[in-house]
Design goal:
Oligomer: single chain
Radius of gyration: 20 Å
Structural class: alpha/beta
Number of strands: 9
EC number: 2.1.1.297
Order of helices and strands: HHHHEEHEHEHEEHHEHEE
Number of domains: 2
Enzyme class: transferase
Catalytic activity: L-glutaminyl-[peptide chain release factor] + S-adenosyl-L-methionine = N(5)-methyl-L-glutaminyl-[peptide chain release factor] + S-adenosyl-L-homocysteine + H(+)
Protein name: peptide chain release factor N(5)-glutamine methyltransferase
Distance between the termini: 29 Å
Largest sheet: 7 strands, mixed
Number of helices: 10
CATH class of the largest domain: Alpha Beta
Pfam families: MTS (PF05175)
Shape: globular
Length: about 300
């Protein structure tokens, strides 16, 4: 979960930095003629609503609309502040089109750095767990980038799980509804090679400072990480040694200021920490590696 400064993985993000390196998403076939002249009017309406990338958003809304009435409805929703991804029903992430339903956390472009780090540690046939999965974007990206993975995903939010199932099922993945590890099948204990946990890490006091698109339209449990932003992370790390395979890796995002405490949390759990940053993407990823030999009491 990104902090309040995180660039979103919006369907309409115009390439402006390395954070937008995947560029605009692929277009659908040309829109029927009745919408051919709608671009200027749509752009004007979006600009009036304060949309920064009005031209790109207009193109995507026109492509998504079934006709003039549907386009007008979609423009009205966007102008009201509903995230573009919720209006069109998808977000671009790691080169994939990820289904995103209203209320579900929108994957951020910075989280592609977590995917990159996980892919570097992964292998063909790995067991992958996407915890606090939201839409399942991270798991889907890992299953696409690694061959033959066994993919599992879990989230406490029922709407997110329904969405994740649509994104991971075509890749052979399974999504579970429940609190962290609780809904997972016991056969996964000690077998997870890559555990990607995009936990909420915004401190409670800073949630009201998030952009309105996040605080008003995404589930609070996907944003609020407790007093210091690390409450959920502590629970994930505490359980990780029982689920990680020997040599397996837990990966998660934090802010730079949280990374030092996150490292301490990993060490107390017996995991070997490493911190990686990408200044262009404003991303910090912390990795905790399990010992290559299983420690007593972790079964």
């Amino acid at each position: 979960m990104p902090d309040s400064t995180a660039p979103r993985s919006t369907a309409a993000s115009a390439p402006a930095s390395a954070a937008d390196r995947t560029g605009p998403p692929a277009s659908r076939p040309p829109t029927p003629r009745p919408l051919a002249g709608a671009t200027a009017q749509t752009v004007a309406a979006l600009r009036a609503a304060g949309c920064v990338f009005a031209e790109e958003e207009a193109r995507l809304l026109i492509e998504a609309a079934d006709g003039p009435a549907d386009l007008a409805a979609k423009v009205a929703l966007r102008a009201s502040g509903l995230p573009l991804e919720h209006v069109v029903g998808w977000a671009e992430f790691a080169g994939l089109r990820i289904a995103v339903d209203p209320g579900v956390f929108v994957p951020r472009r910075r989280t592609e750095f977590l995917v990159d780090r996980a892919l570097a540690l992964g292998r063909e046939g790995a067991v992958v767990l996407d915890l606090c999965c939201g839409s399942g974007a991270v798991g889907a990206a890992l299953a696409t980038g690694l061959r033959g993975v066994e993919l599992h995903a879990a989230d406490l939010d029922a709407a997110a799980v329904r969405c994740a199932r649509r994104n991971v099922a075509p890749l052979g993945g399974t999504a579970y509804e429940g609190d962290l590890y609780a809904p997972l099948p016991g056969r996964l204990r000690g077998r997870v090679d890559l555990l990607a946990a995009n936990v909420p890490y915004v401190p409670t006091a800073e949630v009201p400072l998030l952009p309105a698109e996040a605080r008003d339209h995404e589930a609070p449990l996907a944003l609020d990480g407790g007093p210091d932003g690390l409450d959920v992370l502590r629970r994930v790390v505490a359980g990780a040694p029982r689920w990680l395979a020997p040599g397996g890796a837990l990966l998660f995002e934090t802010t730079e200021r949280q990374a030092r405490e996150a490292v301490r949390i990993l060490r107390r759990a017996g995991l070997t920490p490493d911190v990686a940053t990408d200044e262009d993407m404003h991303a910090t990823v912390v990795v905790g590696r399990a010992s290559a030999q299983r420690a007593p009491g972790t079964d």
